[in-house]
Amino acid sequence: MKFIPTASQTVGPFFSIGLTPLYQSSSTALASPENKITIHGTVYEADHLPIPDAVLEFWSADGFARVPTKDDGTFTVSADLPFVQSTTAQHFEVLIFMRGLLKPVYTRVYLGNPEATASDSILKLVPQARIATLFAASDGSPKRFVWNIVMQGENETVFFDL
What we know:
The longest helix is centred in the N-terminal third of the chain and has 5 residues, at 7-11. The protein contains two helices and nine strands. The N and C termini lie far apart (33 Å). The chain has a single domain (7-150), classed as Sandwich (Protocatechuate 3,4-Dioxygenase, subunit A). It is globular and about 50 Å long. 6% of the residues lie in helices and 31% in strands. Strands 1, 2, 3, 4, 5, 6, 7, 8 and 9 form a nine-stranded mixed sheet that branches.
């Protein structure tokens, strides 16, 4: 069997050309100081190698931020704490764009304790054993979280249909 590259593997992505002016330009660009949080982490392939050319979009009712991964697969985003509705836990909607994908994948990142989100209607749809992949953990500093994304394989992050 001969493997032939797909169109997206041979012609792109060109995120560094088209989106660079639209990336979050500083750690305080979109966040007010009193509500600012920071989420940092790494995007990994199935073989646990970092992905250096992904773009992540973090969406909430209060705002939006777009950040790239660096050469080592890491990213950092600063934003205001998302608004919390009575039926959902505090979270951001996240779109991930990267090579090999013809369209983005969609996931969520939740802030806080998984046990404290039992009333979240979306989390009720996720198998209990996989919920942890959607949670950013405190990195020991106030309002700073770490969340790693695994695109496929063991410990794959939960992705949702758009």
